[in-house]
Design a protein that fits this description.
alpha+beta, two-stranded antiparallel ribbon
């Protein structure tokens, strides 16, 4: 069953536009109405620069009502999955008073005078506890949970094997090498 499948990306042998596909599935298969299929605008090997947080958020808003309550959504670390934070973290350019306010809002008590560099060290240790992403909050408000995979661990992501199987099917059955024919459902005649 798994012969010829891989979780890693394979460079296509044909130049030209590609399809960018977002979908979500479970043990019951892909979620009906969950497909987002876009034609690549760039001839790039990395599609991640063509999907942005806005497109992903809109897709998630459409998907969430289609999922069962208490679903756990497994996500890898694609930049568009967690690009927008609910609360902007202080940086070295942030005013000292604003860093102090940020820390105070997180429950940190700063009772001795400190310079910005010292305050930012505290920020560095506190921020992982308080990081909230727009997508996570959107999901939580729909009674679902996001589980983020550690970076570079595709073997933990079941959708990677599913995509590998789909790509293999397309590779074996794509006789015209035209994008419109790849988008067609199986058993539909090519033109």
């Amino acid at each position: 069953f798994l012969k010829g499948l891989t979780t890693g990306s394979v460079n296509p042998s044909v130049k030209g536009n590609r399809l960018i596909v977002l979908h979500i599935g479970s043990e019951d298969g892909f979620v009906p109405g969950g497909l987002l299929c876009l034609e690549s605008k760039k001839n790039s090997h990395d599609y991640h620069d063509e999907i942005n947080e806005e497109t992903f958020r809109e897709w998630m808003e459409n998907i969430l009502p289609k999922l069962r309550d208490n679903s756990v959504i497994v996500m890898d670390n694609a930049s568009y999955h967690s690009a927008v934070k609910m609360d902007k973290d202080p940086t070295p350019c942030t005013r000292k008073v604003d860093i102090l306010k940020w820390l105070e809002d997180k429950g940190e008590v700063i009772d001795t005078p400190m310079i910005i560099a010292e305050l930012l060290e505290i920020v560095k240790h506190v921020k992982p506890i308080h990081e909230k992403y727009v997508i996570d909050e959107l999901t939580k408000s729909s009674n679902k949970t996001i589980l983020r995979l550690p970076p570079y661990h595709n073997e933990l992501n079941p959708i990677k094997l599913a995509w590998s199987s789909i790509k293999n099917h397309v590779r074996m059955n794509n006789t015209t090498f035209k994008l419109p024919n790849v988008k067609k459902p199986p058993n539909t005649p090519n033109t």
